[in-house]
């Protein structure tokens, strides 16, 4: 029995829609927790932050053809602010995802040449970096004057999708595990989008229109040439800025 990490967010639904194998046990958690389990070998594979592979390529293999990436926007990795980005002084960074935090550093410090203070105290921040379901629900409430989609900001610069998560397998595992995960994910993705088109996908709290927009216009589950090129650009930034 192999333990496979599954992020407990809406964006993983296509990957795990028909993901059933008696020898694979799914372990759910937020991205940072699953990274910790995978790094320690407490799970053998998982869909985790792409930064984990960039920082520790010696530990993992990438499952081919599978990722959680953006299209032009991703809709669920968002910076919320009451003022334009140039005026932000103190930013709350979600502890849930290392990749999203590094992308925020890249956009603010590398591109906008800003030097904000980062905090884990929401109350003292004038901007919030939120991801996943929390980002979606916060955007829906419309309490912030400015909302920046981090993947959209990346696309404006590079005209490439941004790779948020990769399916990683620990290198000591048999390579057959990579093949099984890939096949299960591709079957799941195909079945999910077929059912979504036919109105058969139901998620509590989301309308059919919201689901079609999110999965149809924001999320991308491929890992091809463009995604690899995008990941390489991000890798160079992280290797230069490991001190963050």
Which short descriptors sum up this protein?
244 residues, alpha/beta, D-Maltodextrin-Binding Protein, domain 2, 6-stranded mixed beta sheet, 11 strands, 42% helix
SSE order and pairing:
Blueprint: E1 2-7, H1 13-16, E2 24-29, H2 31-40, E3 45-49, H3 50-55, E4 60-70, E5 77-81, E6 90-93, H4 98-111, E7 117-119, E8 127-131, H5 132-141, E9 146-149, H6 150-158, E10 163-170, H7 176-197, H8 208-218, E11 219-220, H9 225-240
Parallel strand pairs: 1-2, 1-3, 6-7, 6-8
Antiparallel strand pairs: 3-10, 4-10, 4-11, 5-8, 5-9
Report on the structure:
The protein is an alpha/beta fold and about 240 residues long. It has 2 domains: about 1-70 and about 160-240, D-Maltodextrin-Binding Protein, domain 2 (3-Layer(aba) Sandwich), CATH 3.40.190.10; about 75-160, Periplasmic binding protein-like II (D-Maltodextrin-Binding Protein, domain 2), CATH 3.40.190.10. The chain is built from 9 helices and 11 strands. The chain has helices at about 15, 30-40, 50-55, 100-110, 130-140, 150-160, 175-195, 210-220, 225-240; strands spanning about 1-5, 25-30, 45-50, 60-70, 75-80, 90-95, 115-120, 125-130, 145-150, 165-170, 220. A 6-stranded mixed beta sheet has the order 2-1-3-10-4-11. Strand 6 (about 90-95), helix 4 and strand 7 (about 115-120) form a beta-alpha-beta unit. It is globular and about 50 Å long. The model has no long low-confidence stretch (mean pLDDT about 90).
């Amino acid at each position: 029995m192999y333990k496979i990490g599954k992020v407990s967010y809406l964006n993983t639904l296509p990957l795990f829609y028909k993901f059933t194998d008696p020898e694979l046990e799914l372990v759910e958690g937020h991205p940072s927790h699953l990274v910790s389990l995978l790094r320690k070998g407490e799970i053998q594979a998982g869909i985790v932050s792409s930064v984990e592979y960039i920082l520790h390529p010696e530990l993992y293999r990438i499952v081919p053809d599978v990722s959680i990436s953006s299209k032009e926007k991703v809709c669920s990795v968002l910076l919320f602010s009451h003022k334009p980005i140039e005026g932000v002084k103190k930013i709350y960074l979600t502890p849930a995802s290392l990749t999203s935090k590094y992308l925020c550093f890249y956009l603010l410090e590398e591109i906008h040449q800003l030097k904000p203070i980062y905090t884990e105290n929401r109350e003292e921040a004038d901007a919030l970096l939120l991801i996943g379901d929390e980002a979606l629900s916060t955007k829906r409430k419309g309490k912030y004057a400015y909302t920046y989609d981090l993947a959209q900001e990346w696309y404006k610069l590079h005209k490439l999708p941004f790779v948020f998560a990769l399916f990683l397998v620990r290198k000591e595992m048999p390579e057959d595990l990579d093949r099984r995960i890939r096949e299960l994910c591709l079957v799941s993705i195909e079945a999910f989008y077929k059912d979504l088109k036919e109105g058969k996908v139901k998620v509590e709290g989301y309308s059919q229109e919201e689901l079609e927009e999110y999965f149809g216009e924001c999320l991308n589950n491929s890992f091809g040439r463009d995604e690899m090129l995008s990941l390489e650009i991000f890798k160079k930034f992280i290797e230069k800025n490991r001190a963050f």
